Fold these 2 entries.
Entry 1:
Amino acid sequence: MKILVTGGAGFIGSAVIRHIIRNTTDEVINLDKLTYAGNLETLAEVSDSERYCFERVDICDRAEVDRVIEQHNPDSVLHLAAESHVDRSIDGPAAFIETNIVGTYTLLEAARQYWQTLSATRSEKFRFHHISTDEVFGDLPHPDEVLSPSASESGDKLSLFTEKTAYAPSSPYSASKASSDHLVRAWKRTYGLPTLVTNCSNNYGPYHFPEKLIPLMILNALDGKPLPVYGKGDQIRDWLYVEDHARALYKVVTEGVPGETYNIGGRNERRNIEVVETICDILQELRPSDKPYRDLITFVQDRPGHDRRYAIDASKIQRELGWSPQETFETGIRKTIEWYLNNLDWCQRVQNGSYQRERLGMRS
Ligand SMILES: NC(=O)c1ccc[n+]([C@@H]2O[C@H](COP(=O)([O-])OP(=O)(O)OC[C@H]3O[C@@H](n4cnc5c(N)ncnc54)[C@H](O)[C@@H]3O)[C@@H](O)[C@H]2O)c1
């Protein structure tokens, strides 16, 4: 199988490509614009493979997308290219509208035109898999509220996001992802394009861009800089190790039922403050510091519109496709910290680029 992966130079896209080249005989075409978040060093281990090639293309450029599709004749598309950072979407939403909505529309139209020209056998097997986030669902009741007397009277409980949860995005990022999910479903319903959508919780692991929460905290701690935590740090996220996500995406694109949505998550709900404290404690063990890393934690003004809690019910993908995560949060976070300690030179190179040192804040 030949798979066109968009956004393959990013954090999750590169993990997917490494997974495919390592574990299958499939070919991969990586289509990526290489924004500040794209980094080809993440693909060093596969770049010499005859089954891998790279095309520097913007998904909003229809002529170039058509050229790549025509030249490589893919059997499926895994669409990950996106602007992905919530804080950036608050400061400058335009790029999110352009890439996440217009870009997805452009890719859908190019894929539809191509799919219509395929033979019956190939068109039946063709898949357009759109990778999305649990942030499209908005936020869930938080235990601090649910356990309060007024909440028990109103019947609030600790629910999870399922595939049927209504969309209620809070940030420009999540609203742009919600829009793109709707477009993808409409292209299935209206034109019959065999689409799949997955909505995943927060990922973490190697090659995560250092503006995001976990790498930012690791690197700041090692530099003796403050560890900025939004609000009281009580926001809850459901963390999934990136390689578990990559395995899930390959399962869905190869075995998923067209038109279906699958939620992906690790049932690893943690308060942001717990995540930061865990990082400090593991660092204290691996790189002991005279001044405990926990002393660097500082609370900063909360992000506007900050969702309180996300948590995914991943029982459908477990039941129907037999996927389940291999890493617990404890094993995954330790591996991640060890990876950063062994790859500080990568972090430095990425940070020397467009990393905005002056911006402090909790990143999700
Ligand atoms: N990171 C998470 O925790 C998470 C969780 C759930 C879903 N997702 C989704 O997974 C996908 C990948 O996320 P990520 O964290 O790897 O993002 P990322 O920001 O690390 O990577 C995005 C990649 O897309 C490329 N790109 C951006 N605009 C482009 C354009 N116009 N044309 C072509 N390429 C472009 C970038 O160069 C980069 O390589 C996104 O769609 C995101 O919404 C992410």
Entry 2:
Amino acid sequence: MLTQLINGRILTPQGWITDGSVLISNGKILEVTNSDLAVIGANVIDVKGMNIIPGFVGMHIHGGGGHDYTECSFDAFNAATKAHLLHGATTVFPTLTSTSFDNIIKVAGLCEEMMKTNKVIQGLHIEGPYLNPKMAGSQWGEFLTEPNKDEYTQIIESTSCIRRWDISPEISGGYDFGRYTSSNGILTAITHTEAEYEDIKKAFAAGFTHAAHFYNAMPGFHKRREYKYEGTVESVYLTDGMSVEVIADGIHLPATILKLVYKLKGVEQTCLVTDAVKYAAFDGEIEDSRYIIENDVCKLADHSSLAGSLATMDKLVKTMVNKAGIPLEDAVRMASETPARVIGVENTKGTLQKGKDADIVILDKDVNVRCVFSYGKIVEGTNTLIH
Ligand SMILES: [Zn+2]
């Protein structure tokens, strides 16, 4: 069956097209054309002047809809992924928080199985457990350890689903880890780190090419006694070719910093991520008394710290546009095209181009999601084009 989207502003890698159409067949984009003449036999969908943009690529998501991926069940994986899909994330890389070796093996097995039926899931992202305890906080204390070569090689050899792994590069064995993971085609990122310029140079040479939740859990410019030092932040800025991601929920980073990252790293090296916890896109009660939800973010109940974001991908784009004043097309690219390329799925995802998967979001002028297409099909519950 042929579907034709007409009467919208289409975002292509060359910019916006108006009065064109997107043709979809068999779950793929058949053509993006300059013409909006109805194609004979096509099911024509009028998007009423709204924006037709590529579906978002969620490369750092711990959970949503009341479920966390560490629950390690079919139901949890499907529910969390669906919660984000409803907000436009047509590609999701579930993130596994620092956990035990056995649990990593188990989740990798499950993820591989899931990917056969839930095509929104494109691979697994592991965060930790090889983290600098000084920067990781107490959250996962019991699991934190130095990289153990026997352990991580066994995990990586046991599965093909791992697409990304984040650790603190400066801990003992960190650079060897980066050489191994990056040479196995895994996007290797620095996280929870106090690396300074020399460490970042070594890390980049070893294959760490991305910085997780930039600015969060890493120092910036600081003083030790009377002398001043660059932090991880400045070191990453100085490393050409190292991409970054920002939690653009408007709370984890102020709009001025979002603007600065956009200005210095640019659209092509900046990804928007949710880093969402299980309470994102969830309207039930929080059962865990250690946490509270206040001002659209999850906090520790004693207000000592943020405990995770409740953002969905559409919210990030909205923040970039409305609070940081960044053009819509650039904000969308940072949520789709750039993450797709950084994590290595750009052949099928991230832009509206002939031959790619028909993962498409219809966004209205107020940056609200009005319809989501996953592999050419409208995702149930997302179509509000007629209201
Ligand atoms: Zn995370």
